[in-house]
Write a structure and sequence with these properties.
By secondary structure, this protein is an all-alpha fold. It contains three helices and no strands. It has helices at 2-47, 54-68, 79-109. The longest helix has 46 residues, at 2-47.
């Protein structure tokens, strides 16, 4: 009977740990999703300012992104991670814009 009681306690502890881990993973995925959605808006807002350099705009975007990240996840989403994320989204936006304007020109000239 002692073994069964101990196994039950072990399973309860394992279950609690797995629940905590799963909660953190789900919450982190939600944070990343929100960041991805908001970052393109942050980039667009920063690009409006023509007097700032690219580095200054990036710093502003990273700052806005950091404000969205809950404190508990700032260990994971460091400024370096946020900057890489913003740069990837910026690159994707630029690529799409270049493809769109190229296709748009072809449609109206051809």
């Amino acid at each position: 009977m002692v073994i069964v009681d101990n196994l039950t306690k072990v399973f309860e502890i394992v279950y609690a740990i797995l629940t905590i881990i799963l909660t953190i993973v789900v919450w982190s995925t939600k944070v990343r999703s929100n960041l991805s959605k908001l970052t393109s808006t942050f980039i667009s807002n920063a690009e409006v300012n023509k007097t700032m350099s690219g580095a200054e705009k990036m710093a502003m975007v990273v700052s806005w992104m950091r404000d969205v990240v809950p404190r508990i996840f700032r260990v994971i989403y460091t400024d370096e991670v946020l900057e890489k994320m913003a740069q990837n989204i910026f690159d994707d936006m630029r690529k799409y814009a270049e493809e769109y304007t190229g296709k748009h020109k072809e449609e109206h000239t051809g």
